[in-house]
Amino acid sequence: MHGADPRLVLGLHRSRHQRDILSTALDLGVTALDTAAPYLGFRSHAVLAETANDLLPKFTLSTKVGFFPGVGGAEHSLAPDRLRLAIEKAARELGREADTVLLHNPERSLASLSPSDGQALLGSACTALVDAARDGLCRTWGVSSWDTRPLGMVGVDALPSPDVLMVRTGFLVGIDLLDTTAVLCNAWQAGETWGMSPFGGGNGRAWEDFDPRLFLRPPHDGLSRVQAAFRTAFHLPSAAAVAVGTDNPGHLAQLVTALGAEVDTGAVSQYLRALHGRRQR
How much of the chain exceeds pLDDT 90, in percent? Predict the structure, then answer.
């Protein structure tokens, strides 16, 4: 059995929530699990408790709130009372409080607002999560953002600083978004930055014409391009943990192996400079 490595978080987006992948994760030392209220058709919490109730205490668990069942699909809301009820419901369905509760894609409700109105709305939502942590409904709180650009427009430096800021990471994130995320992280002073979706939801074809192993320090014999892309994602942007979704135990084992590789941070810096230079042409 491998030693626990909190840097890899098993994400359940698009997962079938089967017990075997959770058991494999624990055997590999992956003890962090990330889900969200709307995953699996808003059944993620209940299904986890039903199929793996005995395993859940062995994980540090993060979940997200902000999406709610609506007519014709999910609707997004940052209303503090709805967020509070969603956090309480998550604890009931899971049979335990989540270790971390994240505000799920707040930009969905901010994009059409003025900066001042957006700041007020985001501030009240963050305060709802601060209060939930204070009341013991979670240990820490944070924000998960697929597109950080709207967040950068509302003056987050005046808002409560999250314990966790989860953002997109990896080679498939454009330089504009990477820059915006860097500015946001500096302004908001989150306790930790987590990455997500290091493969952009793709199936690996992106690496057929590009070899991310160029960004690893030797020796890295035997590592695949996908493994190298995952390991380098911890530096695009700098992240303490990266959440990745898979129902394939073999794929998860490969990602755990990749954690042992060392990234050439100089090569990453050169890559970012090249992207900036290309944008300015």
Answer: 88
- Cα–Cα distance for residue pair 42/39, rounded to 1 Å: 5
Give me 231's structure tokens: 């390991």
Q: Which pairing describes strands 60-65 and 32-34: parallel, antiparallel, or unpaired?
A: parallel
Residue 275 lies in a domain: yes
Q: Exposed/middle/buried for 24, CB within 10 Å: 0-12, 13-18, 19+?
A: buried
Give the pLDDT score at 202. Answer: 66
pLDDT tier at 203 (50, 70, 90 boundaries)? Answer: low
Is 55 inside a domain boundary? Answer: yes
- Domain membership of residue 221 as a residue range: 8-280
**Angle CA 157–13–137, to nearest 5:** 55
Distance separating alpha carbons of residues 273 and 76, to the nearest angstrom: 37
What is the tally of helices (H) and strands (E) in the chain?
10, 10
The one-letter code for the residue type at 231 is R
Mean pLDDT to the nearest integer, 178-198: 95
